[in-house]
């Protein structure tokens, strides 16, 4: 058991009979009335984010989770396959448990989050920033930099992303997997 004083981002708690991750929290002490904690909770199974307010000092059950290092191997029609970095054990994970699966490259290291009590996979966390190669994009027009203009580019994983006009085919770019946006041209 934990209280609202133990809240931190990424903590997995049991709420309404389901597992939720604390995405964001804020302790509030109004001038009048008791203190409370405002939270954004993400349901691990459905991915739905909900706002909830806990009175200060409320007890919650903390779920035991483990983060294990895995390497992405390949994808087929059934799902995605990963190998444990140390034991070489292979697991199969369905697409809906992987956030930002469209940026996974073969050989990429990820963290698989397990529920320690049931030893089931809760989610697969892709690194926040990945470097990928642009496989196709339309050529940009020279001198068209007066505005912050973007164009579509296909990356090596097969998905498309919006990039600035100066990016060409063959360039390596850094992508933020959380917001699914272009960050910068990768330094070689």
Describe the structure.
The strands form three sheets. The protein has a six-stranded antiparallel β-sheet, with no helix packed on it. Strands 9-8-7-10-11 form a five-stranded antiparallel β-sheet, with no helix packed on it. The model has no long low-confidence stretch (mean pLDDT 89). The chain folds into three domains: 2-62, Roll (SH3 type barrels); 65-125, Nucleic acid-binding proteins (OB fold (Dihydrolipoamide Acetyltransferase, E2P)), CATH 2.40.50.140; 129-185, OB fold (Dihydrolipoamide Acetyltransferase, E2P), CATH 2.40.50.140. It has 188 residues and is mostly beta strands. The chain has strands at residues 2-3, 12-15, 18-28, 36-43, 49-55, 59-62, 65-75, 80-84, 90-93, 109-115, 120-125, 129-137, 150-155, 160-164, 172-176, 181-185.
How far apart are the termini?
A: 48 Å
Query: Residue-averaged pLDDT, rounded?
Result: 89
- Which CATH architecture of the largest domain is right? Roll
Oligomer: single chain
Report the uncertain regions: none
CATH topology of the largest domain: SH3 type barrels
Query: What is the percentage of strand-forming residues?
Result: over 45%
Principal-axes geometry comes out as flat
Structural class by secondary-structure content = mainly beta
Brief synopsis:
The protein is mainly beta and 188 residues long.
List the helices and strands and how they pair.
Blueprint: E1 2-3, E2 12-15, E3 18-28, E4 36-43, E5 49-55, E6 59-62, E7 65-75, E8 80-84, E9 90-93, E10 109-115, E11 120-125, E12 129-137, E13 150-155, E14 160-164, E15 172-176, E16 181-185
